[in-house]
Specification:
Elements: H1 7-15, H2 20-57, H3 69-95, H4 99-104, H5 109-145, E1 156-162, H6 170-184, E2 190-196, E3 205-209, E4 221-228, H7 232-235, E5 240-243, E6 257-261, H8 262-268, E7 278-280, E8 285-292, E9 307-311, E10 319-326, H9 334-344, E11 350-354, H10 355-362, H11 364-398, H12 400-408, H13 413-441, H14 443-446, H15 458-484
Parallel strand pairs: 4-9, 6-8
Antiparallel strand pairs: 1-10, 1-11, 2-10, 3-4, 5-8, 6-9, 7-8
Helix pairs in contact: 2-3, 5-11, 5-13, 5-15, 6-9, 11-13, 11-15, 13-15
């Protein structure tokens, strides 16, 4: 309820016999109506967003994000609470004021305007903080699009299965993998195929490796590793910088081999050639036959880490996933590849995905947070602009006589416009300055939220204040034009 604009109305109603209870009920009823209308609009926007958000963010979900009975109850309670908090207290205060003071309208407009201005400053501070957070997250999402994984996820079909559940032992499992790799590679459209124990981002194996003749010959180096099949590095387009990768000759009965990444080689044998060196794993020595380029294995935001690759045909595990690199789109290869595997064993339970989809899912949370904070920041900015517009309009209405006298004494319209807009810019600048300082103070917290961008990114910290200040000027434009149109008479 706009109390200041309705003081005389309430005073007249009271002088004509309206009791305090009736005045209070009228004002509270109006507040409830406004709150429920706002709640309905918000509910409608939520229904619209429920259908737009999954498509916009490319979420792989079958769920319909729509308000249910719980949300409806929450909206009802929130609307009622808003009306009671922001409608009852001012209405009760106004209903208790003496009628004569209401009719005389003592000059409290400037004090109330400054109070409103303080609220606008607070809204602007919140807008600045939220817009900066949204901007940093948006920049992080942009950075994830350019991240170098060290391997190519495009056109890579993944079919996962558990051979342990199908009753395969070590020898039978290795035989199945060899046969499956041979037959899948012959499917038309398949460029190459391999098998892997752990897919990227979906867990890891860890071991403490010892290496004779190094600083880790006794205590060992704690490192992650994976079990991969022949052609693994060619299938994933992962670069071998020295030696060779895992081949079809690296099977049970042949000497154990291992491929390490550059970080692993540099950690154990700095400045030396690691090819031909040995590692100890499970009471067995494994000869290093290749060095792969250090890549991303477990998290898109991980720092370079040591990693080793052993042959799935030498160190067998029942959990396996076939990775098929295709020439045509992967969707055209799914059926023939699954048919080949079912011919080997019709009782296998298989699940499928694509490596590109797996990578996309890793960044889903970044996109969701960036979108949500951006929406909330936009709402906060809208509220700040509306609040500033209200303050400016109130000041113009309170100062209409003063402005008319100034114009009668020769003040030009341009000076009146500049004066009103300058006041709005001052209020906005105060909020922007405080918001930027608070955001800089929170840079330590923001550091854990962003990726590929510093938490005090100059681009974000320059664009956001500029947007806020321009918004403040636009919010003051209409009241300024209205002030310049005051009739001196």
């Amino acid at each position: 309820v706009d109390i200041e604009e309705r003081e005389r109305e309430i005073g007249i109603r009271a002088s004509l016999g309206a009791g305090r209870r009736r005045l209070l009920s009228q004002l509270v009823t109006e507040s409830l109506i406004l709150s429920f209308l706002g709640g309905l609009v918000g509910l409608g926007m939520a229904c619209f967003a429920g259908s737009v958000i999954p498509a916009t963010l490319a979420l792989n979900t079958d769920r319909v994000i729509m308000p249910d009975a719980t949300v409806l109850l929450f909206v009802f309670l929130l609307s009622t609470l808003a009306a009671l908090l922001f409608g009852t207290a001012p209405a009760w205060k106004l209903a208790r004021v003496d009628v004569r003071s209401l009719l005389q309208r003592p000059g409290q407009g400037r004090t109330r305007a400054w109070g409103r201005g303080g609220l606008v400053v607070g809204q602007t501070v919140l807008s600045v903080i939220l817009l900066i957070c949204g901007g940093l997250l948006a920049r992080s999402v942009q950075a994830t699009q350019n991240i170098d994984l060290g391997w190519d996820p495009d056109r890579k079909l993944v079919i996962s299965l558990l051979l342990d559940n199908a009753g395969y032992g070590d020898e039978e499992g290795v035989a199945f993998l060899e046969s499956a790799l041979e037959r899948v590679s012959q499917v038309p459209g398949v460029r190459s195929v391999t098998v892997v124990n752990r897919l990227p981002f979906l867990g890891s194996n860890t071991w403490s490796f010892t290496a004779p003749g190094t600083d880790f010959s006794v205590e060992g180096l704690q490192s992650t590793f994976n079990l991969v099949g022949p052609d693994y590095f060619r299938t994933l387009d992962m670069e071998i910088v020295a030696g060779r990768g895992i081949t079809r000759d690296d099977v049970l009965g042949n000497p154990g081999v291992v491929v390490v990444n550059e970080a692993f080689a540099e950690r154990l044998w700095p400045g030396e050639n690691p090819i031909g060196r040995t590692l100890d794993l499970i009471d067995q020595s494994w000869r290093v036959v290749g060095v792969a380029r250090t890549a991303i294995y477990h998290s898109p935001t991980e720092n370079p880490r040591t990693h080793a690759f052993f042959s799935s045909l030498q160190l067998y595990q029942g959990r396996n996933s076939f990775i098929v690199a295709t020439e045509p789109p992967t969707s055209t290869i799914v059926a023939p590849v699954e048919e080949v595997l079912r011919q080997l064993n019709p009782n296998l339970t298989m699940s499928r995905m694509t490596l590109s989809g797996l990578v996309r899912e890793q960044f889903t949370s970044w996109r969701i947070w960036a979108a949500l904070i951006s929406v909330i920041a936009a709402v906060a900015l809208f509220l700040a602009v509306v609040g500033l517009y209200g303050v400016q309009s109130f000041l113009v209405s309170q100062r209409s006589k003063e402005i008319g006298i100034r114009m009668a004494l020769g003040a030009e319209k341009g000076s009146v416009v500049r004066g009103v807009m300058g006041r709005g810019l001052l209020i906005g600048a105060m909020g922007v300055a405080v918001g930027v300082v608070v955001a800089l103070a929170l840079s330590g917290v923001l550091r854990g939220m962003v990726f590929g961008v510093v938490p005090n990114d100059p681009l974000v910290f320059s664009i956001v204040p500029a947007v806020l200040l321009v918004s403040c000027l636009l919010a003051s434009l209409i009241p300024a034009l209205r002030a310049s149109g005051v009739n001196p008479v």
